[in-house]
Each structure stands twice: as structure tokens, then as C-alpha cells.
């Protein structure tokens, strides 16, 4: 909250300085010229720090931020201050915390209490009464402009906070200024006063303050504070902005504060201070801090417990507390894994709101900190994300036999969007023939430990030979996937219970173990994960439609040749996963259920391997009967493995 307070103090001087500068520059000149100066400075900062460029989604959000805090607020407030004193504007902008909280609840999908809305209305009415009295029985145009500026600023704040999950606070405002620069540069050129350098030094200094502090530096602290402390909580610090503005109006502009101004300023601050949003229910972290134990189901907190987590739900937010206590020797490594998990989650489903927090024990007191501010004393990691209704989970639709292609189409398109955003692997090894051969051999070796329990000799014979033959036959294809950018940082465990169907997009829940190793693999692995689940649930037709749609929108026709092999691989992975769970369960009924799932996975792998064998045989025969196709060997460096592949192909042709 202290970080946000610094930003508020900086913003509190904006109206008095604007009121002073508006005597020399018109409102549009102030707004566009200060944005242009800040934009050039922001560009230099981004270049020096080599900050990554925003993607299309982030650019759209940055544009909204720019419209709110770079154009909307400066233009409207400067126009308003031509007709009203800055102290008057300070009172009207006392509703800024309320606007920010309201927009924050809408964007973050919170559900404020009835009391919250009652006090919100009272605060708005107080501002209206004050404006009416000051306007001698009527509302002035300046009041309308000030309210509009408050809404514009609030919108920019709230959208900027959502971007703070992808960027640091200073990067958000810098990128917003840079992306808006083409819009503001021409008006700035037109409105730049020719006699600027003849202005009094004080006026020029105040203008530079508006450009470098109000338009740029203040947001460094403000966005950081909102991201760390939350919109609803930290936005209330803006109440002090009215006080800063009133004090500055007296000392800088020599304005006289009327009793009405002081009275209504105090009333607005009082109403918003007692707002129920401030006195919201204690969440599980409060109980944890006080009792140093995980709480029972208190104050509406819904608690469930799994093997690894305590899970709490407050309205539309879910918290998952990782039970494992972190040993000091492994804390740094585990924190690195968590940073990677959070980064991957933001790439996977930006709208999931997934964040990792560190619950730390410092000087005998528990404290919840953002992961980037962790001091290394982590007791528990806390995962936070939006609540996903069970009825909208893909697994529920499958269980209730309500799955339709329209659901899979949403999943398919969201998955493709994720694959386009995911990092590309630079190492040639991952995803190649040798790598896939090692993975398959290791799966077979580990599965053999469960021979005659979940795995039979017949399954081994039916699966290993076709898979080995496929890998030998498709060395070139596996290498080309690397060149074509199809090896990326994938989800790794793309199963129906981790997929939520929304109206326009699917949200994918990250797995905790996703961060333990690098997840670079063929994007076909994600697709095969889901298709295998659909096949196990007897959705053969829908699974084929899903595949065809992915092939079409991704233009990845090569995946057709790979899919059967990856499905066999998934059968082994699922079977081995269930087999390993047998030793962890004591209940005979649960053991029997796990056993049946393991056997079913291995049997499905064997069935798919039979199809794979037929496919490879048919391809070899077709190639033998047709004229050889000479490829351009200069396109891809296949090294020695490619030569081996050619030799093996010739031997197969002779056979």
C-alpha cells in the first residue's frame, strides 16, 4: 500500500499544476504535448531495458489504458480546470477511488455486498450536491468533464492492473505511451506552443512535472501498488489524493478553501472509508496469519482438502495452498519452478487470473507476498485463480454425455492460440527421433515393472514393434518439426478435468509439476492428450472432428502422420501413471478402479498400435510402388541421423 501512496502523492499535484499551466497552454495542448514528451522518454526506457514487445491481446489492453490515462483524463481534466478551481476538482475527483473499485469489481468479476453499493450511491450523491451548490443551483460543464475524467482514469487503472500480470508496472505505462504515440504525435506537433521557451521557468517546470511524473513516473508506483495489494484495497489510498490536491491548491495557487469545500471533502472521504469493500470478510490468509494454522470453514470460506492442497473459495476466487513445506536448501529452486509455472500459466490462459504467492514466516509473523517479492522464507506456496464452475468443465460434459462439437471447437481454437503464443525451442534435440526414441523406451521399461498387473506380454508385442518401426521411418519428419516451429513449450497434461469451456474461449488450468522440467515438445502431444481422453470415452467421431479442425486452423498437415504414434505414447503414459498410483492406495475398491483404468489405457495403446502398424506398412508399400521423390537436402541439416534414415528406408524398400 505504501508503493501506491507514493503514486497518489505524485498524482495529487496534477490538478494544481494543470490549473497553473492552463493559463499559458490550452487543454488539448497540455494533454497531447505532455503525452508526447512522456512517450519519447518511455521509448528510451524500453530500449535501454530491452523490454519484450506486447502481443496482440496485450496491445489491445494497452490501447485501452492509453485512451483512459493518456488522452481521456488529461484532456477532460484540463478542460474542466478552465472553469473550476483545482480545489473544486479535487473534491469531484474524490470519487476516483469509488470508480476504480466499481470498475475493478466488474473486470475482476467480484460480487460486492448491498452495503457496498449503498455507500457508493451516497458518495455519488454527495458529489452531486456539492457540484449543485457550487454551481449556484445548477451543474456546471466543468463538473461533467471532471466526472468523465475520473471514469477514464479508473478504466486505465483497472485494465493496467490486469496487464501487471504480464508486465512490470513501469512497463505497462511505458508501452501504453509508446503504442499511443502515433495517435498523439500529430496533435502534439500542432498544439505545441511556439513560445514555450519564453514561458516563465516555473510554468515550464510544472509542465515537465505533468509529463514526466503525472503521465509517467507516478504510474510506476501506482500500477505496482495495485498489482501487489489489489485494486479494491489499494485504490482507497486515493482518498488522500483529495487532501494532497486541496493543500497544494492553497500553497501553490493561493486558493481559499471554503467551508463547503472542506465539509464535502471530509464527507466524501468518510463515506468511502467506511465502505464495506474496505471491511470485507477475512480471507483464509488472515486466519492463517492470526492462528498460524490452516483455518476451518469460517466466514463463508469453502474448504476442501486433497493430497497436496488445501483449497479455499471466496466468491469467484479460488486459493490453493500447497501443503508441502519448503526446505531452506531447496527454496530457491522451488521458487524458480513457481516463477516458471506462473509465466506458463499466463501464456496458457491469460484470463484465468493464475498467480503464485509466497506465504512466509518473517520474525515470527506470517506474511503473504507476491512471488517476485519473496524473501526466501517460504512456508507454503499459494495458487490463486478465478473460480471455474464444475458444470462447465470438459470432464463434466463428457461424464453427463453432453459433449458437442461446439465445445471442442472452442477448446481447439483456444489451444491453437496458446500454441502460437508459447515459446519455441531452440535446442535441436528435443522432439527429434533420438529424443522420442528415448521417451518411448523409458516408458516401456518403466511399464514392465508392472508386468502381469496392468501390463501384459501381448501388449508389449503389439505396441513396441510398430512404434519402433514408425520412429525409424519418420526421422526426417521429426527433424522437420523442429525447423517448422512445431516444438514449443506445451501444457504437458492436457486432460478434460483441467479444461473449462467459456462462451468464447476455453481456460486451461496449469499443472503444478509443469514447472519441474522443461515442457518443450511437439504441439501434437497436447492434441493427442485430449484426443486419447475422447477415444477412451467413446467419442471417436467427435475426436476426429476435433483433429480435422485443428489441422485446418493450424495448417499443420504433418501432424496427421504423427498423431497415431503420439496416441500410442499417451496410452503408455496414462497406463504407467495409473500403475504407479496402485502402491499409494490402500482401499481395495479404489485399487480395483485404478487397476481397471491402467489396463484400459494399455489396451487402448495396443489397439492404436495395430492401426499404426497398418499405416506404416501402407506408406512403405505406396512409396515402393511410386517414383522416388527427391527433396532439397539443403533446406534442413539432417546430420548423420538423416543418412541413417535413408539407408533404413532403402532396406525396407528391398524387403
- Profile the largest sheet: 6 strands, antiparallel
Give the end-to-end Cα distance, rounded to a whole number of Å: 75 Å
Q: Report the β-strand fraction as a percent range.
A: 5-15%
Round the mean pLDDT to the nearest integer and report it.
78
Strand elements, count: 10
Which strand order spans the largest sheet, edge to edge or round the barrel?
Answer: 1-2-3-6-4-5
SS field, number of helical segments: 25
Secondary structure: helix percent: 55-70%
Query: Outline, from the CA principal axes?
Result: elongated
- Quaternary status: single chain
- Return residue spans where pLDDT drops below 50 for at least 5 consecutive residues: 277-282, 629-655
Q: Taking Cα atoms only, what radius of gyration do you get, to the nearest Å?
A: 31 Å
Structural class: alpha+beta
> How many separate domains make up the residues?
3
Organism: Potamilus streckersoni
Membrane topology: Multi-pass membrane protein
Subcellular location: Membrane
Protein name: EamA domain-containing protein
What this model shows, in words?
With 655 residues, this protein is of the alpha+beta class. It has three domains: 2-273, no CATH class; 284-387, Phosphorylase Kinase, domain 1, CATH 3.30.200; 394-654, Alpha-Beta Complex (Aminoglycoside 3'-phosphotransferase, Chain: A, domain 2). Helix content is 63%, strand content 8%. It is built from 25 helices and ten strands. It has helices spanning 2-12, 14-21, 27-49, 56-80, 86-92, 96-107, 114-134, 141-163, 169-191, 201-229, 231-234, 239-253, 259-273, 284-291, 331-348, 394-399, 405-421, 433-448, 457-473, 475-483, 523-536, 540-554, 559-581, 588-625, 639-654; strands at residues 302-305, 309-314, 317-322, 355-362, 365-370, 378-386, 487-489, 499-501, 506-508, 520-522. The strands form three sheets. The chain has a six-stranded antiparallel sheet, with helices on both faces. A two-stranded antiparallel ribbon has the order 7-10. The chain has a two-stranded antiparallel ribbon with strand order 8-9. A hairpin with a 2-residue loop joins strand 4 and strand 5. Helix 2 runs parallel beside helix 12 (239-253) and helix 4 (56-80) crosses helix 9 (169-191). The radius of gyration is 31 Å and the shape is elongated.
